[in-house]
Amino acid sequence: xxxxxxxxxxxxxxxxxxxxxxxxxxxxxxxxxxxxxxxxxxxxxxxxxxxxxxxxxxxxxxxxxxxxxxxxxxxxxxxxxxxxxxxxxxxxxxxxxxxxxxxxxxxxxxxxxxxxxxxxxxxxxxxxxxxxxxxxxxxxxxxxxxxxxxxxxxxxxxxxxxxxxxxxxxxxxxxxxxxxxxxxxxxxxxxxxxxxxxxxxxxxxxxxxxxxxxxxxxxxxxxxxxxxxxxxxxxxxxxxxxxxxxxxxxxxxxxxxxxxxxxxxxxxxxxxxxxxxxxxxxxxxxxxxxxxxxxxxxxxxxxxxxxxxxxxxxxxxxxxxxxxxxxxxxxxxx
Length: 334
Description:
Blueprint: H1 2-19, E1 37-42, H2 45-56, E2 61-69, E3 72-79, E4 82-88, H3 93-106, E5 109-120, E6 130-132, E7 135-138, E8 142-144, E9 147-148, E10 151-155, H4 159-171, E11 187-189, E12 193-194, E13 203-204, E14 208-209, H5 212-224, E15 238-240, E16 243-246, H6 254-264, E17 268-270, H7 273-282, E18 286-295, H8 306-331
Parallel strand pairs: 1-4, 1-5, 5-18, 6-15, 7-16, 16-17
Antiparallel strand pairs: 2-3, 3-4, 5-17, 6-18, 7-14, 8-11, 9-10, 12-13
Helix pairs in contact: 2-8, 3-7, 5-8
């Protein structure tokens, strides 16, 4: 009798829940917000400190409120009258995915500009230089494969992966930016399959492309701001376009660096940007990412110097970031 009563109670409870139309599931609806916000994003402390320090010197850049959501700090304010939210993703693709999606769920964001440091894959870069890649790739989505028993230099490819490679090879005939996939030892690269609203199935995405309007704003900003220099006075190199790569590893290996350049034509490598790009793409948010060179990603002689140049590189990147924000303000229809 008691068991029957319990089962009846559970059934009634779920029935009531299913019929309760007052329950709203999912993220907040910001469709009625006219003046959407710009997210100003960094990855970790030296980068966000450089942004905060720059804002502190400006009368028309203000942080008016700080909120914490699930432990993540979001700073709300205005930049020359335009609403912004400033936050740090934390290092790594997992942290970036969580913090950016939360921001898009809880704040009315329609544009995202990220600034941070990166390792140089293209040998033309030195610490302090800036890259604003047009495309971002994941470099360590991969399959770890055993060598063949009778030939240690060949690998026993799983059937599904062999079919993927055929598809990837054929795609290069129609997409010049598609990666030229090849293995590095037992590591065989592949790519993520993405889904978004309006798609009935997941699609493999070799890369994510930055918003063209924001790229043009970056180019205009570069012609208007003073030359960006190192503390020594040396003028830095700024490139807009090209490719960046993202992974869950800190790249500090010369052979892997060469492989990244060969497969992805990579200019820089870091640990968040492709994730930020994917989340923005799925949420229909315009995005652009600035990366300042802090190290040579294994191309140096001796120890990596990222810890020496991270603050300096964050400072040079912030100069360009402010120029792009100025362009956003100038072109806002309001």
